[in-house]
Structure formats: structure tokens, C-alpha cells
Amino acid sequence: MGKLLTFSLLVAALAVLLGERIINLRRIALASRELVQNHLPNCVPIKGLVYGSEDITILPNGRALISTGLKFPGLPSFSDGPGKIFSIDLEDPRIKPVELRIARNFDVDSFNPHGISTFIDQSDDTIYLFVVNHPEGRSQVEIFKFIEEDNTLEHVKTITHKLLYSVNDVVAVGVESFYATNDHYFLQEPLRSLEPLLGLAWCSLVFHGPGDVRVVSEGYGSANGINASPDQRHVYAMDIVGHSVRVLERQEDNSLISMKSVDVGSLCDNIEVEPRTGDLWLGCHPNGWKLFNHDPQDPAGSEVIRIQNILSEQPLVSQVYADDGSVLIGSSVAAPYGGKLLIGSVFHKALCCDLSQEI
């Protein structure tokens, strides 16, 4: 009788603990959140981008680079083919995506691009494109030269390291130097999926440079998008399950000092920085529960958040766009240029919106 009572109490305690963890997970995922539509004028789908546009970055001349076709654990993918990189000239009113041809010896069949970043070498104006790649589920960073006049990418180098084990995004700060986010601590299931359930904050940022690879920031529930201020003195990292952007000061030795976190109230993914103002533009998932359940009858929505004056004592956080999933599912990035806003998604389409009345 005593053993049965002990067992019953143990089962009851475990049930209470599991119930509390599920309630907490739903809170983190914003499972009860419903959006009020907040559309921008003249938003149109971008023809040819139908298998996701997980990350977008825009060069100073208005050339947008877009990673497409991501296959990510737990999320749907509607393409059986490899991922691709597209380019759009935003100075051209046609907004026409062009697939970039990858030259030289590179395994395009297993290409699975995720976060991207660019670096322009001021000594010769060479444009380098850094791409997080997940061939067969692995994590590595590819460095390409972008030959703009030929719409080609020349593969320069593949970077792998034991500290770059679950990479989500990168921000390039040199020809072979970058900061990267790890969005999980564990690599194998079921531990990987248990991280948010258990509320673990074990994810990290890593600096990688020639002869120098180290963890430079820790304590993230899931480190996601990353970018830098226009002067590269500050790094911005998204803790997607913490609903916040962490602001870090970059040191001469490339270490990072955490300054503060800015709450955004959503599950924000990638970060783009407007070079003129320094404003942050975030592509966000307003309801993560719907995103991972992926019910076509109740789709996940999309949200774009802008942060102005992020280095001040009172940053201004505002919602620029919101949709309940009837137009765009699972927004992951928002990139402004010249009165236009490109909004990309993990596995759905991409939009080009008129931003002239908002800025």
C-alpha cells in the first residue's frame, strides 16, 4: 500500500510538472495571441518566390539577395529541390527575381540556405556573401563572391567548426570573419525539442575569424537573427523565445559586452538594419504555436516590427505590418529600401510593399 501511494504521488507530481511546462511553452509560443490586421498599402506577392524567402539582405545599390527553399526540422517545405539564392534589383520597378548561378566546385544538390549576410571589401569593392548552409542537416557557413554583372556566385570557402553546430544566422564583419547564432544546444532528438519545454537558455553567439573561434555571448533560449549597427560597433542578436533583442557592444578583440535587452512582444526571426537611420526591422512570428502546428485552416500569421533609436534609453518599438495568415504565413525577415519593404517567409511567399507613407 505504501509503495502504491508513493508511486501515485510521483505520477501526480510529474503530471503537475509536465502541465506547468506545457503552460509555460504555450506562453513562450504566444499560443493564445490573435492578430488585428495591419496591412501596408500596395503589398504584392513577388513572382517566382514561392518556396520561402527565409532571409533577405540588401546591398547599398539596392540589390537584394534572398535565400530560398529552406528545409528546417519541424516546419513544412513545399519543394523537393535544393535551395537557391535569388537577386532582385530594387531600382528596377519590375521587382523581378533572378536566380544566381553558383560557379566552381560546389555541391548545389545539397544546398540548404538559411541566414545570409554580406561584406564589401573596401580595398577592391569585392562583395562577399556569407550563407548558413544545412546540407543533410549539418551546419556550416559558405563564403561566396557575388559577381553582380554576371549574376553568379563563386564559392570561396566552407567553414565548419565544433562551436558552429546549430547555426541559424550570421553577420559578416570581415572577408572571413563573422558572428553566428546557435539556435539549439542539443543536436539530437528528443533533447533538441525538449529545450523550449524545459525552458533551457543554453544557446550562444560565436565569433569566427582567421585563427580565432570562440563563444562570445551565452544565455539565449534560442539565438536566431543577428546583425550589426552601421558603424559595426554594436551587434544585435535575437532571442526568439525570449521575445527580445539583445544589444551588445563590440570590443577591439571582437568579444561582446551585453548592454541591454529590448522587448518586442513577438517571436522575431531575422534582423535587418537600415543603414541611414540604424533602425532595426524584424520579421516576426506572432503565434509560434500555429507556426509549428501548421494547420492550413488556421495558418500562422506574420508581423513586422521596427525599432527606432535602439541605443537610446527609450527605444521606440512599433508594429509596421500584421497579417493573420490569409496573405502571408510565417514571416521571417523584413528589409526596407527606397520606400519599399520586402517581407520574406520561412516556407511561404514573399511580398513587396509600399513603405513611402510609413517613413
Describe the protein in words:
The chain has 359 residues and is mainly beta. Helices cover 11% and strands 43% of the residues. It is built from 3 helices and 25 strands. The strands form 6 sheets. It has a 5-stranded mixed beta sheet with strand order 6-10-9-8-7, with no helix packed on it. A 4-stranded antiparallel beta sheet has the order 1-25-24-23, with no helix packed on it. β13 (203-209) and β14 form a beta hairpin. It is globular and about 75 Å long. The model has no long low-confidence stretch (mean pLDDT 93).
Q: Which SSEs are present, and which pair or pack?
A:
Blueprint (H helix, E strand, L loop, with lengths): L1 H27 L15 E2 L9 E4 L4 E6 L15 E6 L8 E2 L1 E3 L9 E9 L4 E8 L6 E8 L4 E8 L7 E6 L5 E5 L8 H8 L4 E7 L2 E9 L2 E6 L5 E6 L4 E7 L5 E8 L3 E7 L6 E6 L2 H6 L8 E7 L7 E8 L7 E7 L2 E6 L5 E4 L5
Parallel strand pairs: 6-10
Antiparallel strand pairs: 1-25, 2-3, 3-4, 4-5, 7-8, 8-9, 9-10, 11-12, 12-13, 13-14, 15-16, 16-17, 17-18, 19-20, 20-21, 21-22, 23-24, 24-25
Task: Give the strand line-up of the largest sheet.
Answer: 6-10-9-8-7
Dominant shape: globular
Distance between the termini: 72 Å
Number of strands: 25
Radius of gyration equals 20 Å
- Residue windows where pLDDT falls under 50 for at least 5 positions: none
